[in-house]
Design brief:
heterodimer; A: mainly alpha; B: mainly beta; Immunoglobulin-like; four-stranded antiparallel β-sheet; 11 strands
Chain lengths: ~400, ~150
Protein backbone atom coordinates (compact mmCIF):
# COMPACT_ATOMS: atom_id res chain seq x y z
CA UNK A 1 0.00 0.00 0.00
CA UNK A 2 1.73 3.09 -1.17
CA UNK A 3 0.93 6.47 -2.46
CA UNK A 4 2.67 8.23 -5.28
CA UNK A 5 2.58 11.92 -5.85
CA UNK A 6 1.38 12.47 -9.40
CA UNK A 7 4.43 12.40 -11.63
CA UNK A 8 5.80 15.62 -12.96
CA UNK A 9 8.99 14.40 -14.42
CA UNK A 10 8.62 13.37 -18.00
CA UNK A 11 11.25 10.62 -17.72
CA UNK A 12 9.34 8.87 -15.01
CA UNK A 13 6.08 9.38 -16.82
CA UNK A 14 7.45 7.68 -19.91
CA UNK A 15 8.61 4.78 -17.79
CA UNK A 16 5.18 4.53 -16.17
CA UNK A 17 3.51 4.55 -19.60
CA UNK A 18 5.86 1.83 -20.81
CA UNK A 19 5.07 -0.32 -17.79
CA UNK A 20 1.39 0.26 -18.42
CA UNK A 21 1.70 -0.81 -22.06
CA UNK A 22 3.59 -3.92 -21.03
CA UNK A 23 0.97 -4.83 -18.44
CA UNK A 24 -1.38 -6.89 -20.65
CA UNK A 25 1.55 -8.98 -21.85
CA UNK A 26 2.69 -9.58 -18.29
CA UNK A 27 -0.82 -10.56 -17.24
CA UNK A 28 -0.81 -13.58 -19.51
CA UNK A 29 1.68 -15.44 -17.32
CA UNK A 30 0.07 -14.32 -14.09
CA UNK A 31 -3.26 -15.97 -13.84
CA UNK A 32 -5.44 -13.44 -15.62
CA UNK A 33 -4.83 -10.73 -13.05
CA UNK A 34 -4.06 -7.26 -14.39
CA UNK A 35 -0.87 -5.43 -13.40
CA UNK A 36 -2.90 -3.25 -11.05
CA UNK A 37 -4.51 -6.27 -9.42
CA UNK A 38 -1.15 -7.99 -9.05
CA UNK A 39 0.23 -4.94 -7.29
CA UNK A 40 -2.72 -4.93 -4.91
CA UNK A 41 -2.43 -8.64 -4.24
CA UNK A 42 1.26 -8.15 -3.42
CA UNK A 43 0.35 -5.38 -0.99
CA UNK A 44 -1.59 -7.89 1.16
CA UNK A 45 1.69 -9.56 2.14
CA UNK A 46 4.20 -10.75 2.96
CA UNK A 47 2.99 -12.73 5.93
CA UNK A 48 4.11 -12.74 8.68
CA UNK A 49 4.66 -9.04 8.30
CA UNK A 50 7.38 -7.04 9.99
CA UNK A 51 6.90 -6.32 13.69
CA UNK A 52 8.95 -4.30 16.15
CA UNK A 53 8.76 -4.53 19.91
CA UNK A 54 6.46 -1.99 21.55
CA UNK A 55 8.56 0.95 22.74
CA UNK A 56 5.74 1.97 25.10
CA UNK A 57 5.98 -1.27 27.05
CA UNK A 58 9.33 -1.83 28.69
CA UNK A 59 8.72 -5.58 29.02
CA UNK A 60 7.64 -6.03 25.40
CA UNK A 61 9.49 -9.07 23.98
CA UNK A 62 10.93 -9.82 27.43
CA UNK A 63 10.95 -13.61 27.88
CA UNK A 64 10.22 -13.55 31.63
CA UNK A 65 7.34 -11.11 31.14
CA UNK A 66 5.89 -13.39 28.46
CA UNK A 67 5.95 -16.26 30.99
CA UNK A 68 4.27 -14.08 33.62
CA UNK A 69 1.73 -12.70 31.14
CA UNK A 70 0.83 -16.20 29.99
CA UNK A 71 -0.04 -17.20 33.56
CA UNK A 72 -1.98 -14.02 34.24
CA UNK A 73 -4.02 -14.41 31.04
CA UNK A 74 -5.44 -17.67 32.43
CA UNK A 75 -5.72 -16.35 36.01
CA UNK A 76 -9.35 -16.08 37.25
CA UNK A 77 -8.25 -14.63 40.59
CA UNK A 78 -7.83 -11.25 38.87
CA UNK A 79 -11.65 -11.07 38.77
CA UNK A 80 -14.07 -10.06 41.52
CA UNK A 81 -15.68 -13.51 41.84
CA UNK A 82 -12.47 -15.44 41.17
CA UNK A 83 -14.04 -17.15 38.16
CA UNK A 84 -13.46 -14.94 35.11
CA UNK A 85 -10.08 -14.92 33.35
CA UNK A 86 -9.09 -13.25 30.09
CA UNK A 87 -9.24 -16.74 28.58
CA UNK A 88 -12.90 -17.11 29.62
CA UNK A 89 -13.82 -14.83 26.72
CA UNK A 90 -10.60 -15.06 24.70
CA UNK A 91 -10.57 -18.86 24.32
CA UNK A 92 -7.35 -20.16 22.71
CA UNK A 93 -9.33 -22.96 21.02
CA UNK A 94 -11.47 -20.37 19.16
CA UNK A 95 -8.85 -17.94 17.93
CA UNK A 96 -8.99 -16.27 21.36
CA UNK A 97 -12.68 -15.44 21.03
CA UNK A 98 -15.81 -16.90 22.66
CA UNK A 99 -18.21 -17.72 19.82
CA UNK A 100 -20.91 -15.58 21.44
CA UNK A 101 -22.61 -12.61 19.75
CA UNK A 102 -21.78 -10.37 22.70
CA UNK A 103 -19.44 -11.04 25.59
CA UNK A 104 -20.51 -12.35 28.96
CA UNK A 105 -18.32 -11.93 32.02
CA UNK A 106 -19.73 -10.95 35.40
CA UNK A 107 -22.62 -9.50 33.41
CA UNK A 108 -23.72 -9.24 29.77
CA UNK A 109 -21.85 -6.85 27.54
CA UNK A 110 -22.92 -5.20 24.30
CA UNK A 111 -19.99 -5.96 22.02
CA UNK A 112 -18.52 -8.99 20.30
CA UNK A 113 -15.26 -10.39 21.71
CA UNK A 114 -12.49 -9.92 19.12
CA UNK A 115 -9.95 -12.68 18.47
CA UNK A 116 -6.42 -11.88 19.61
CA UNK A 117 -4.23 -13.42 16.89
CA UNK A 118 -1.96 -10.74 15.36
CA UNK A 119 -3.24 -8.16 17.85
CA UNK A 120 0.31 -6.79 18.16
CA UNK A 121 0.00 -5.20 14.71
CA UNK A 122 -2.94 -2.97 15.58
CA UNK A 123 -2.85 0.79 16.04
CA UNK A 124 -6.16 1.11 17.91
CA UNK A 125 -7.69 -1.42 20.28
CA UNK A 126 -11.36 -2.14 20.94
CA UNK A 127 -14.14 -1.79 18.35
CA UNK A 128 -14.19 1.94 19.08
CA UNK A 129 -10.42 2.33 19.31
CA UNK A 130 -10.78 3.45 22.93
CA UNK A 131 -7.16 2.42 23.53
CA UNK A 132 -3.97 3.37 21.73
CA UNK A 133 -1.81 0.59 23.13
CA UNK A 134 -2.07 -3.11 23.87
CA UNK A 135 -1.39 -2.93 27.60
CA UNK A 136 -4.11 -0.40 28.34
CA UNK A 137 -6.55 -2.53 26.28
CA UNK A 138 -5.49 -5.40 28.55
CA UNK A 139 -6.01 -3.38 31.71
CA UNK A 140 -9.56 -2.30 30.76
CA UNK A 141 -11.25 -5.73 31.17
CA UNK A 142 -9.68 -6.25 34.61
CA UNK A 143 -11.47 -3.15 35.88
CA UNK A 144 -14.65 -3.36 33.76
CA UNK A 145 -17.57 -4.19 36.06
CA UNK A 146 -19.30 -6.31 33.40
CA UNK A 147 -16.16 -8.26 32.51
CA UNK A 148 -13.83 -9.08 35.44
CA UNK A 149 -14.74 -6.43 38.03
CA UNK A 150 -11.24 -6.53 39.49
CA UNK A 151 -9.14 -3.74 40.94
CA UNK A 152 -5.58 -2.54 41.41
CA UNK A 153 -5.68 -3.74 45.02
CA UNK A 154 -6.85 -7.22 44.04
CA UNK A 155 -4.27 -7.54 41.25
CA UNK A 156 -1.42 -6.32 43.47
CA UNK A 157 -2.42 -8.64 46.33
CA UNK A 158 -2.46 -11.58 43.92
CA UNK A 159 1.08 -10.79 42.71
CA UNK A 160 2.47 -10.27 46.18
CA UNK A 161 0.64 -13.25 47.66
CA UNK A 162 1.73 -15.88 45.14
CA UNK A 163 5.37 -16.98 45.42
CA UNK A 164 5.43 -18.18 41.80
CA UNK A 165 3.87 -15.01 40.37
CA UNK A 166 6.10 -12.78 42.53
CA UNK A 167 9.13 -14.72 41.29
CA UNK A 168 8.14 -14.32 37.63
CA UNK A 169 7.45 -10.65 38.31
CA UNK A 170 10.96 -10.21 39.73
CA UNK A 171 12.46 -11.90 36.67
CA UNK A 172 10.46 -9.68 34.31
CA UNK A 173 10.72 -6.29 36.00
CA UNK A 174 14.00 -6.76 37.88
CA UNK A 175 12.53 -6.15 41.32
CA UNK A 176 10.00 -7.54 43.78
CA UNK A 177 6.34 -6.48 43.35
CA UNK A 178 6.63 -3.68 45.89
CA UNK A 179 5.41 -0.74 43.82
CA UNK A 180 2.06 0.92 44.58
CA UNK A 181 -1.08 -1.01 43.68
CA UNK A 182 -1.92 1.17 40.65
CA UNK A 183 1.63 0.80 39.31
CA UNK A 184 1.51 -2.96 39.80
CA UNK A 185 -1.77 -3.09 37.90
CA UNK A 186 -0.11 -1.35 34.95
CA UNK A 187 2.75 -3.84 35.08
CA UNK A 188 0.31 -6.76 35.19
CA UNK A 189 -1.25 -5.36 32.02
CA UNK A 190 2.17 -4.86 30.40
CA UNK A 191 3.14 -8.47 31.12
CA UNK A 192 -0.16 -9.79 29.70
CA UNK A 193 0.40 -7.56 26.65
CA UNK A 194 3.87 -9.00 26.09
CA UNK A 195 2.38 -12.50 26.05
CA UNK A 196 -0.36 -11.48 23.59
CA UNK A 197 2.35 -10.13 21.30
CA UNK A 198 3.40 -13.74 20.72
CA UNK A 199 -0.02 -14.69 19.28
CA UNK A 200 0.83 -14.73 15.59
CA UNK A 201 -1.26 -16.55 13.00
CA UNK A 202 0.52 -18.70 10.41
CA UNK A 203 0.63 -18.13 6.63
CA UNK A 204 -2.51 -19.22 4.77
CA UNK A 205 -3.48 -20.52 1.33
CA UNK A 206 -3.83 -16.90 0.21
CA UNK A 207 -0.31 -16.07 1.44
CA UNK A 208 1.17 -18.99 -0.48
CA UNK A 209 -0.71 -17.85 -3.62
CA UNK A 210 0.48 -14.29 -3.16
CA UNK A 211 4.09 -15.40 -2.72
CA UNK A 212 3.84 -17.72 -5.75
CA UNK A 213 2.65 -14.80 -7.91
CA UNK A 214 5.55 -12.70 -6.64
CA UNK A 215 7.99 -15.45 -7.62
CA UNK A 216 6.11 -16.01 -10.92
CA UNK A 217 5.81 -19.64 -9.90
CA UNK A 218 2.76 -20.69 -11.94
CA UNK A 219 2.75 -24.27 -10.67
CA UNK A 220 2.54 -23.17 -7.03
CA UNK A 221 -0.04 -20.49 -7.86
CA UNK A 222 -2.22 -23.09 -9.58
CA UNK A 223 -2.94 -24.84 -6.27
CA UNK A 224 -5.04 -21.86 -5.11
CA UNK A 225 -8.70 -22.83 -5.69
CA UNK A 226 -10.50 -21.23 -8.63
CA UNK A 227 -13.40 -20.07 -6.45
CA UNK A 228 -11.07 -18.18 -4.07
CA UNK A 229 -9.35 -16.64 -7.09
CA UNK A 230 -12.68 -15.37 -8.46
CA UNK A 231 -13.60 -14.14 -4.99
CA UNK A 232 -10.30 -12.27 -4.79
CA UNK A 233 -11.14 -10.47 -8.03
CA UNK A 234 -14.42 -9.27 -6.55
CA UNK A 235 -12.64 -8.28 -3.35
CA UNK A 236 -10.13 -6.09 -5.21
CA UNK A 237 -12.49 -4.85 -7.93
CA UNK A 238 -16.24 -4.46 -7.77
CA UNK A 239 -16.39 -4.98 -4.01
CA UNK A 240 -13.75 -2.31 -3.29
CA UNK A 241 -13.16 -4.27 -0.11
CA UNK A 242 -9.43 -3.60 -0.07
CA UNK A 243 -10.05 0.14 0.17
CA UNK A 244 -10.61 -0.42 3.89
CA UNK A 245 -9.44 -4.00 4.38
CA UNK A 246 -5.94 -3.10 3.21
CA UNK A 247 -2.42 -4.42 3.65
CA UNK A 248 -1.09 -7.67 5.10
CA UNK A 249 -3.55 -7.52 8.02
CA UNK A 250 -6.51 -6.73 5.73
CA UNK A 251 -7.32 -3.57 7.66
CA UNK A 252 -6.22 0.02 7.37
CA UNK A 253 -6.39 0.14 11.18
CA UNK A 254 -8.96 2.94 11.09
CA UNK A 255 -12.76 3.20 11.38
CA UNK A 256 -15.78 3.05 9.14
CA UNK A 257 -19.55 2.86 9.01
CA UNK A 258 -20.85 0.01 6.91
CA UNK A 259 -24.46 0.20 8.09
CA UNK A 260 -24.35 -2.34 10.92
CA UNK A 261 -27.08 -1.09 13.32
CA UNK A 262 -25.70 0.62 16.39
CA UNK A 263 -28.80 0.31 18.56
CA UNK A 264 -28.39 -1.61 21.77
CA UNK A 265 -31.26 -3.63 23.21
CA UNK A 266 -33.42 -2.81 25.10
CA UNK A 267 -32.61 0.89 24.65
CA UNK A 268 -29.59 2.98 23.78
CA UNK A 269 -27.00 3.40 21.10
CA UNK A 270 -23.36 2.47 20.75
CA UNK A 271 -21.65 5.70 19.65
CA UNK A 272 -18.68 3.71 18.32
CA UNK A 273 -15.58 5.71 17.45
CA UNK A 274 -17.03 8.95 18.82
CA UNK A 275 -17.21 7.43 22.31
CA UNK A 276 -13.86 5.70 21.75
CA UNK A 277 -12.06 8.99 21.16
CA UNK A 278 -13.59 10.46 24.33
CA UNK A 279 -12.60 7.40 26.33
CA UNK A 280 -9.10 7.41 24.91
CA UNK A 281 -8.41 11.07 25.61
CA UNK A 282 -9.78 10.78 29.17
CA UNK A 283 -7.71 7.70 29.99
CA UNK A 284 -4.65 8.01 32.26
CA UNK A 285 -3.28 4.98 30.40
CA UNK A 286 -3.07 6.52 26.93
CA UNK A 287 0.30 7.10 25.27
CA UNK A 288 0.34 10.79 26.16
CA UNK A 289 0.28 9.79 29.84
CA UNK A 290 2.94 8.89 32.38
CA UNK A 291 2.82 5.11 31.89
CA UNK A 292 4.13 5.21 28.33
CA UNK A 293 7.66 3.80 28.61
CA UNK A 294 8.77 5.53 25.40
CA UNK A 295 10.38 8.68 26.80
CA UNK A 296 10.36 10.33 23.37
CA UNK A 297 6.58 9.74 23.08
CA UNK A 298 7.36 9.10 19.43
CA UNK A 299 4.79 6.27 19.57
CA UNK A 300 1.96 8.70 20.44
CA UNK A 301 1.59 10.25 16.98
CA UNK A 302 -1.89 8.80 16.37
CA UNK A 303 -3.25 10.06 19.68
CA UNK A 304 -1.57 13.45 19.52
CA UNK A 305 -2.97 14.31 16.09
CA UNK A 306 -6.44 12.77 16.44
CA UNK A 307 -9.18 14.83 14.83
CA UNK A 308 -12.68 14.10 16.17
CA UNK A 309 -15.37 14.41 13.47
CA UNK A 310 -19.18 14.16 13.43
CA UNK A 311 -18.95 11.12 11.22
CA UNK A 312 -17.18 9.20 14.01
CA UNK A 313 -20.61 8.53 15.51
CA UNK A 314 -21.47 4.95 14.61
CA UNK A 315 -18.07 4.20 13.11
CA UNK A 316 -16.33 1.00 14.23
CA UNK A 317 -12.86 -0.34 13.71
CA UNK A 318 -12.17 -2.02 10.38
CA UNK A 319 -11.41 -5.55 11.59
CA UNK A 320 -8.68 -7.79 10.25
CA UNK A 321 -9.94 -10.48 7.88
CA UNK A 322 -7.38 -13.06 8.96
CA UNK A 323 -8.58 -16.05 11.04
CA UNK A 324 -12.28 -15.39 10.29
CA UNK A 325 -13.13 -19.10 10.22
CA UNK A 326 -12.16 -19.18 13.91
CA UNK A 327 -13.95 -16.04 15.07
CA UNK A 328 -17.66 -16.19 14.13
CA UNK A 329 -20.01 -14.43 14.76
CA UNK A 330 -19.04 -11.17 13.09
CA UNK A 331 -19.28 -7.38 13.46
CA UNK A 332 -18.96 -5.21 16.57
CA UNK A 333 -22.24 -6.56 17.94
CA UNK A 334 -21.84 -10.12 16.68
CA UNK A 335 -25.03 -9.67 14.67
CA UNK A 336 -23.94 -11.71 11.63
CA UNK A 337 -23.52 -15.43 12.27
CA UNK A 338 -21.66 -16.59 9.16
CA UNK A 339 -19.41 -15.27 6.42
CA UNK A 340 -22.29 -15.90 4.04
CA UNK A 341 -24.32 -13.43 6.13
CA UNK A 342 -21.49 -10.88 5.96
CA UNK A 343 -21.31 -11.15 2.18
CA UNK A 344 -25.12 -10.81 1.99
CA UNK A 345 -24.82 -7.66 4.13
CA UNK A 346 -22.48 -6.06 1.59
CA UNK A 347 -24.44 -7.44 -1.35
CA UNK A 348 -27.84 -6.14 -0.21
CA UNK A 349 -26.55 -3.11 1.65
CA UNK A 350 -29.32 -0.87 2.94
CA UNK A 351 -28.05 2.55 1.94
CA UNK A 352 -30.57 4.27 4.21
CA UNK A 353 -28.75 2.76 7.14
CA UNK A 354 -25.51 4.47 6.24
CA UNK A 355 -25.95 7.76 7.99
CA UNK A 356 -25.36 10.80 5.82
CA UNK A 357 -21.69 11.00 6.68
CA UNK A 358 -21.24 7.32 5.79
CA UNK A 359 -18.58 6.18 3.40
CA UNK A 360 -19.56 6.86 -0.20
CA UNK A 361 -17.60 3.81 -1.30
CA UNK A 362 -20.28 1.37 -0.27
CA UNK A 363 -23.05 0.47 -2.70
CA UNK A 364 -25.16 -2.69 -2.74
CA UNK A 365 -23.09 -5.18 -4.75
CA UNK A 366 -26.01 -7.35 -5.90
CA UNK A 367 -23.85 -10.44 -6.09
CA UNK A 368 -25.23 -13.64 -7.59
CA UNK A 369 -25.30 -16.83 -5.51
CA UNK A 370 -22.17 -18.05 -7.28
CA UNK A 371 -20.33 -14.75 -6.76
CA UNK A 372 -21.25 -14.73 -3.08
CA UNK A 373 -19.89 -18.25 -2.70
CA UNK A 374 -16.66 -17.15 -4.42
CA UNK A 375 -16.21 -14.19 -2.10
CA UNK A 376 -16.77 -16.48 0.91
CA UNK A 377 -14.20 -18.93 -0.50
CA UNK A 378 -11.71 -16.10 -0.76
CA UNK A 379 -12.36 -14.93 2.81
CA UNK A 380 -11.92 -18.50 4.05
CA UNK A 381 -8.55 -18.68 2.33
CA UNK A 382 -7.31 -15.99 4.73
CA UNK A 383 -7.58 -18.38 7.69
CA UNK A 384 -5.17 -21.16 8.64
CA UNK A 385 -6.28 -24.57 7.30
CA UNK A 386 -5.15 -26.51 10.34
CA UNK A 387 -5.79 -25.88 14.02
CA UNK A 388 -3.98 -22.72 15.06
CA UNK A 389 -0.59 -23.30 16.65
CA UNK A 390 -0.36 -23.44 20.42
CA UNK A 391 1.55 -20.37 21.51
CA UNK A 392 5.07 -21.25 22.53
CA UNK A 393 6.96 -19.61 25.32
CA UNK A 394 10.49 -18.45 24.71
CA UNK A 395 13.13 -20.59 26.41
CA UNK A 396 15.73 -19.34 28.82
CA UNK A 397 13.59 -18.37 31.80
CA UNK A 398 14.53 -19.98 35.09
CA UNK A 399 11.78 -22.00 36.75
CA UNK A 400 9.76 -20.43 39.58
CA UNK A 401 8.13 -22.55 42.19
CA UNK B 1 2.96 43.08 0.60
CA UNK B 2 5.91 41.53 -1.13
CA UNK B 3 8.10 40.30 1.68
CA UNK B 4 10.30 38.02 -0.32
CA UNK B 5 13.94 38.22 0.57
CA UNK B 6 16.68 37.23 -1.76
CA UNK B 7 18.94 35.04 0.23
CA UNK B 8 20.28 32.79 -2.38
CA UNK B 9 23.11 35.08 -3.42
CA UNK B 10 23.34 37.91 -0.93
CA UNK B 11 23.31 36.05 2.38
CA UNK B 12 22.39 38.08 5.47
CA UNK B 13 23.72 37.31 8.95
CA UNK B 14 20.31 36.30 10.23
CA UNK B 15 19.85 34.15 7.17
CA UNK B 16 23.12 32.41 7.86
CA UNK B 17 22.13 31.86 11.49
CA UNK B 18 18.79 30.44 10.40
CA UNK B 19 20.52 28.17 7.94
CA UNK B 20 22.96 27.02 10.62
CA UNK B 21 20.13 26.41 13.07
CA UNK B 22 18.33 24.44 10.44
CA UNK B 23 21.27 22.20 9.73
CA UNK B 24 21.84 21.75 13.46
CA UNK B 25 18.24 20.93 14.41
CA UNK B 26 16.50 19.37 11.47
CA UNK B 27 19.49 17.72 9.87
CA UNK B 28 17.88 18.10 6.48
CA UNK B 29 19.62 19.60 3.49
CA UNK B 30 18.61 23.20 2.94
CA UNK B 31 16.30 23.65 -0.01
CA UNK B 32 17.18 25.67 -3.02
CA UNK B 33 14.85 28.24 -4.51
CA UNK B 34 13.69 27.62 -7.15
CA UNK B 35 13.30 24.04 -5.91
CA UNK B 36 14.89 21.09 -7.61
CA UNK B 37 14.16 17.35 -7.65
CA UNK B 38 15.45 16.90 -4.12
CA UNK B 39 12.73 19.15 -2.76
CA UNK B 40 10.04 16.81 -4.02
CA UNK B 41 6.97 17.69 -6.01
CA UNK B 42 6.61 21.33 -7.04
CA UNK B 43 3.27 23.04 -7.44
CA UNK B 44 2.59 26.71 -8.04
CA UNK B 45 0.03 29.48 -8.11
CA UNK B 46 1.13 32.68 -9.80
CA UNK B 47 4.57 33.53 -8.58
CA UNK B 48 4.37 31.29 -5.54
CA UNK B 49 6.11 27.92 -5.71
CA UNK B 50 5.51 25.24 -3.13
CA UNK B 51 7.68 22.13 -3.01
CA UNK B 52 6.65 19.23 -0.80
CA UNK B 53 8.37 16.02 0.08
CA UNK B 54 7.06 13.21 2.27
CA UNK B 55 9.30 12.29 5.20
CA UNK B 56 9.08 8.70 6.35
CA UNK B 57 9.92 7.02 9.60
CA UNK B 58 13.09 5.00 9.30
CA UNK B 59 11.14 1.76 9.67
CA UNK B 60 9.15 2.13 6.46
CA UNK B 61 10.54 1.35 3.05
CA UNK B 62 11.34 4.64 1.42
CA UNK B 63 11.49 4.18 -2.27
CA UNK B 64 11.72 7.72 -3.55
CA UNK B 65 8.46 9.56 -2.92
CA UNK B 66 6.54 6.47 -1.87
CA UNK B 67 4.56 6.54 1.33
CA UNK B 68 2.99 3.43 2.83
CA UNK B 69 -0.79 3.83 2.96
CA UNK B 70 -2.44 4.00 6.38
CA UNK B 71 0.77 5.07 8.12
CA UNK B 72 1.67 8.38 9.63
CA UNK B 73 4.07 10.55 7.70
CA UNK B 74 5.39 14.09 7.76
CA UNK B 75 5.82 16.58 4.92
CA UNK B 76 8.75 18.83 4.27
CA UNK B 77 7.49 22.00 2.57
CA UNK B 78 9.55 24.74 0.94
CA UNK B 79 7.95 28.01 -0.17
CA UNK B 80 9.60 30.07 -2.88
CA UNK B 81 8.61 32.82 -5.18
CA UNK B 82 10.19 33.93 -8.40
CA UNK B 83 12.82 35.90 -6.53
CA UNK B 84 13.96 33.19 -4.11
CA UNK B 85 12.91 32.06 -0.65
CA UNK B 86 9.44 33.37 0.10
CA UNK B 87 8.60 35.31 3.25
CA UNK B 88 5.11 33.87 3.15
CA UNK B 89 3.86 31.53 5.87
CA UNK B 90 2.35 28.09 5.45
CA UNK B 91 -0.82 28.40 7.56
CA UNK B 92 -2.66 25.22 6.68
CA UNK B 93 -1.84 21.77 5.36
CA UNK B 94 -4.50 19.12 5.03
CA UNK B 95 -5.83 16.38 2.79
CA UNK B 96 -9.19 14.94 1.82
CA UNK B 97 -10.76 12.36 -0.46
CA UNK B 98 -13.15 14.34 -2.66
CA UNK B 99 -14.85 11.19 -3.98
CA UNK B 100 -15.71 9.98 -0.48
CA UNK B 101 -16.34 13.44 0.96
CA UNK B 102 -14.12 12.95 3.97
CA UNK B 103 -10.79 14.17 5.21
CA UNK B 104 -8.05 12.65 7.29
CA UNK B 105 -8.68 11.22 10.75
CA UNK B 106 -5.79 13.34 12.00
CA UNK B 107 -5.17 17.07 12.26
CA UNK B 108 -1.63 17.91 11.22
CA UNK B 109 0.53 20.60 12.80
CA UNK B 110 2.90 23.00 11.03
CA UNK B 111 6.30 23.96 12.35
CA UNK B 112 8.23 26.79 10.67
CA UNK B 113 11.90 25.88 10.24
CA UNK B 114 13.01 29.22 8.80
CA UNK B 115 13.92 30.24 5.28
CA UNK B 116 10.47 29.47 3.93
CA UNK B 117 10.72 25.90 5.05
CA UNK B 118 8.05 24.09 7.10
CA UNK B 119 7.52 20.70 8.60
CA UNK B 120 4.01 19.25 8.64
CA UNK B 121 3.46 16.43 11.15
CA UNK B 122 0.57 14.02 11.71
CA UNK B 123 -0.51 13.23 8.14
CA UNK B 124 -2.10 9.89 7.24
CA UNK B 125 -3.90 8.62 4.14
CA UNK B 126 -6.04 5.93 5.68
CA UNK B 127 -7.75 4.72 2.53
CA UNK B 128 -6.83 3.71 -0.98
CA UNK B 129 -7.88 6.13 -3.71
CA UNK B 130 -7.38 9.72 -4.78
CA UNK B 131 -6.41 12.20 -2.09
CA UNK B 132 -6.20 15.94 -2.51
CA UNK B 133 -3.49 17.75 -0.60
CA UNK B 134 -4.48 21.33 0.26
CA UNK B 135 -2.11 24.05 1.44
CA UNK B 136 -2.84 27.61 2.52
CA UNK B 137 -0.11 30.16 2.31
CA UNK B 138 -0.36 33.63 3.80
CA UNK B 139 1.65 36.61 2.64
CA UNK B 140 0.55 39.78 4.38
CA UNK B 141 -3.23 39.67 4.25
CA UNK B 142 -3.32 37.62 1.11
CA UNK B 143 -4.12 33.92 1.42
CA UNK B 144 -3.27 31.59 -1.43
CA UNK B 145 -4.70 28.10 -1.63
CA UNK B 146 -2.82 25.40 -3.51
CA UNK B 147 -4.01 21.86 -4.08
CA UNK B 148 -2.47 18.79 -5.53
CA UNK B 149 -3.83 15.31 -6.20
CA UNK B 150 -2.03 12.15 -5.17
CA UNK B 151 -3.05 8.56 -5.61
CA UNK B 152 -2.92 6.28 -2.59
CA UNK B 153 -3.16 2.63 -3.45
Amino acid sequence: MTFRPTEHHSGRRILATLLFLLAPAAAAGTDGFSAGELERIASHGPWPTEWMRDPGNRVSANAAAIHLGHRLFFEPRLSANGRVACATCHDPARGFQDGRATARGLADGTRNTPGLFDVRHQRWFGWDGGHDNLWSASLRPILDQREMGGSATRSAALLRGSAALACHYRQAFGKAPKATDPDLLVNVAKAIASWQETLASPPTAFDRFRDALERKDDAAAATYPAAARRGLKIFLGRGQCSTCHAGPLFTNGEFGDIGVPFFIKPAGVDPGRQGGIKRLLASPYNLLGAHNDDATKGNATGTRYLRPEHRNFGEFKVPTLRNLTLTAPYMHNGSLATLRDVVRHYSELDEDRLHTDGERILKPLNLSEAESADLVAFLESLSPEAAPPTPVEPPGVAACR
Amino acid sequence: MNKSRRRRHGVSVSGMLAALALVATAGVANAACPPNDDDGTVINKGDLLLAFKPLLKADSVSKAQRIPMARHFALDVQLCDRGGVSGAQLTKADASMPAHKHGMNYRPTIKPLGDGRFRVDGMMFHMAGRWQLAFEVQAGKEITRLTHDVQAD
